[in-house]
Amino acid sequence: MSDPQAYTIGWISALATEFVAAQQFLDERHNPPESVGHHDNNFYVLGRIGRHNVVMATLPEGEYGTTTAATVAKDMLRSFPNIRIGLMVGIGGGAPTEAHDIRLGDIVVSTRDGNHGGVFQYDFGKTIQDQTFHYEQHLNQPPQLLLTAVSGLKAQYMGDNHELDSKVRQVLERKPKLRKKFSQPPSSSDKLYRSDFVHQSSLQPCSEVCMDDPDNLVTRPERGEEDDNPAIHYGLIASANQLMKDALIRDKLATEKGVLCFEMEAAGLMNHFPCLVVRGICDYADSHKNKEWQGYAAMIASAYAKELLKQIPPNKVEAENRILETIGPALSEIEKTTIATQAAVVGMGSQLLCDKIKSWLCPPDPSTNINYAKKLRHEGTGAWLLKKPFFQLWHSGCNRHIWLYGLAGCGKTVLSATILDYLSERHDGLLLRFYFDFSDARKQRVSGMLRSLAFQMYERGPVFRRHLNALFHDHHDGQDQPPTKTLSEVIRKMLMEGKNVCVVLDALDESTTRDQLLRWIQDITFDPELHHVRLLCTSRPESDLHQGLPDCIGQENCFSVDRQALNEDIRAYVVWQLTGGEGFKKRKLSEDLVELIESKVGKGSDGMFRWAACQMDNLAKCPTAKKMREELENLPENLTKTYERMLQSIPKNLRNSATRLLQFLVHSEQPLTLQEAKEVIATNIDVNPPFFDADDRVFEESLVLQYAPGLISIVEVTIHRDTVKKELHLAHFSVKEFLEAQADFGRPSASNAITRTCLTYLKDITGSHTGINQNFPMARFAAKTWTRFGSLAEAFQDSFQAMLVFVEGEETFQRWCRLYQADWSWDKDPGPPKGSRLYYTCLSGLSNVARELINKGAGVNAQGGLYGNALQAASAEGHSEIVGLLLEKGADVNAQGGNYGNALQAASAGGYSKIVELLLETGADVNAQGRLYSNALQVASVRGRYEVVKLLLQKGADVNIQAGDYGNALQAASIKGYYKIAELLIEKGADVNAQAGLYGNALQAASSRGRYKVVKLLLEKGADVNAQAGDYSNALQVASVRGRYEVVKLLLEKGADINAQGGLYSNALQVASIKGYYKIVELLLEKEADVNAQGGPDKHDLQKRPQRDCKSISREVKRLRT
């Protein structure tokens, strides 16, 4: 065994890839140490480089960051107390600038730069109001001995080539097994994308998604013979606890601080483990990260580090102070700091994950509606409801559910706000709320409600978070969206974690998915495990709700809003307006006029709060008492008459602009911002030619209300913490219903006006792309919106001609695509068009424009765009008429390329059975291979498209075809938990034991995601419970690694070999112990799992090092039992 005192150089790697590379440059490998520190969990490799004895260590598997690096260094110094200098060697993300031509495979060496000692911690500092972020962590520079060696080696390489690349090749010649992972990739794979070009959130690599469009790539000259390749760069390395994947922040730090490279460990070492940092560049610290260059980058960095050590005489190293002597007295402080830092990092990581999940779910925020309702509410409104016996019984838990219904405009939303205020002060359990909202498409669907409720629970603490975290990770860390059914199942689990849960749902009638909503309410109310969940819902008494809700909650729990009590609230509101309201407080009204208003409005409202509010607003505008009396004698009898008068009262010179504004508000999927509303007003489509004139913008945002007084309102919306934007909404749901019944506001007529307004605006705005975004706030909205209404607007000749001219015009087409591309909708700066005019026309569903373009010679098979060609684009979006047109005009039905590979896969992914059938009838190859999902059957299975799966099988799809990431259709359906599809595939002959894909087989796929019903189905249909395949070897191990307790239990019941060896973690007990799943460990021990079972002989020593000791966890579980 080796003597720990003999080692003077400490070498730390962060990743297994780096650790493997480092070991290849040892001139001699030594035996393991005689002993290490009692609490030292590091795994060490000892050896000699030149005349130096070197000890190498790596960070624990799956753990990264400055804190972990500091812990590894601390333990190394205690076990090897004679270490004098250190090296941190591995890979990093490059930060190329005009001054530093950094490329993949290059080397960056940390050297002093300005105020920094070679490493700069960019996530440590403070923010001062009205100033930029101040970086405050000052890190030590590398030891002078190492810096001197760097200077010497640098001078040597200036005169002669460094030949590091040949040294890597020599290693790979000796170790053929390493060639695949550690050889230098072709230079053609070294692509630097524009900083503003973001990789699509997808499983697909850049080669398929981002491709080689020169508009998205930075052009760089090839290196000449006189250039070092790879090059060595000297300067500042940026370090933090988070992975840098943002090219804009990368560029900012590179420009402002001179950063050459980004990594995650060095900042944890510099003050406690004096070392030099050497990094091989494996990516560009942007969203286009890939692992192709990691092996070579690790090799080239290790080759440099070896050459550096060879420059240093051993006696110079011996002359250095032992690091332990220098920092020994501070070790306890380091440990305290490490613990505190770990806690801070956990908190930062938790907040970062929270932000990611919020961005992924995009949960609608109900506080906007609540705050607006409170703004409208007069003090004391709804107090009567809180005293009602049925409400008190509900609040006390005696009754589980309430449905409160009333006519439009009676004030139900304000009552909901009163209830929420009451509960927030008195309810000691979990309070959830959601407001359905006619003016916001995100708040009209059940999926929006579920996302909001899920995130509200997520913010309440870890007990709820684990379920949503698992869902996030199951959907490729947010790259895929969860189906509504899956989200509903997760919410059920989260609700089960809560105690005394109250859910308040307002305005059910404003949901556009009421059938789905009623089914969800039924599931909640009938679930025996959710007896602690209580619902309070409000709505109008629509027929479907009047029939469905009593069946869910019981007729005895359905209550009409008390009209008499409402009248009392309305009278109090009228009195308050007359005595202190904004429109009346400066007016001296006679007593008889006050009494007349109280009588006519307060007593004449018949429980209609909205009607009373409209009349008071109208009276407040009267300039004289006489005019008030005239209005009181001629009050409209209902809301419809009220709104008719409001429309008629709009001044003639404002009427056309007001109509367009209201058309947008009635039909747009999202509200207009006030800035966008000003642009609509300034766009005139009632002249020939139509035009946009910036001088027609209203001076003040509040003046927008003058265009439709009483019908519109300004709402403040918090979009991120303290950031507030103002939106223009219709004043009430009843306003929308009234307008929809008017001829000018029907969908076809409004689509025509909206399309022409957007096209006129886009035609007339001018300037650079950046200038347009800054100076014309409706630019992106208009570019996105016109196509959504264009398919209906095509029926109008003026809109059709405007669309055709717009698409054919070079300047307008380029402007449109630079602002918005429907296939890259997430990218706010998508760059130049990637497809043809016909492609984007077909993508947008503009059949008449598409036909005209084809008649004028547009190529139906032209390649380009995310979907590759026009046929695939139309198929992906479900535009069946355009698909038929393209096929009629000669489109290649089997053309390969694009996101889905071919049109059949695109239509299958979307579940468009009619298009699938049309494509097959026209000759589409049902088994054609291509792209991520490989074939149509697999993509239909992974997307849950049952009818399409059924149709494809009827048309001859090969049920067992092997290809793609999921291997086969059965594995794809199994991983997503689509029971009916899995059952159908098996019925049609799918091999339940077929080996292929990322998960090895269908059983492992279903087990990994906890799809209990599918696991049970597969086992019943003959799946081999002990089949060996994939990274985790068997279903029991993959279920254990993901913490799927119920699945583990089922697998054991069905005969799974509890001690089966193989895979990344050797056996189920070991992985459950490592991951800390105590409940699964307990179950495995009950079933007599072998605590002493060892991993197979082929496992690398790195995987055997203790992380959480299996035996110690087993002892702990046994202790907890007793």
Automatic annotation (TrEMBL):
Chain segments annotated as transmembrane: none
Bias kind Basic and acidic residues: ranges: 1097-1122
Residue span(s) of domain NACHT: 400-545
Keyword Repeat appears in the UniProt entry: yes
Domain of life of the organism encoding this protein: Eukaryota
Residue numbers spanned by region Disordered: 1094-1122
Keywords: ANK repeat, Repeat
ANK repeat positions: 869-898, 899-931, 932-964, 965-997, 1001-1030, 1031-1063, 1064-1096
Coiled-coil intervals, chain numbering: none
Protein name per its UniProtKB record: NACHT domain-containing protein
Record organism: Fusarium equiseti (Fusarium scirpi)
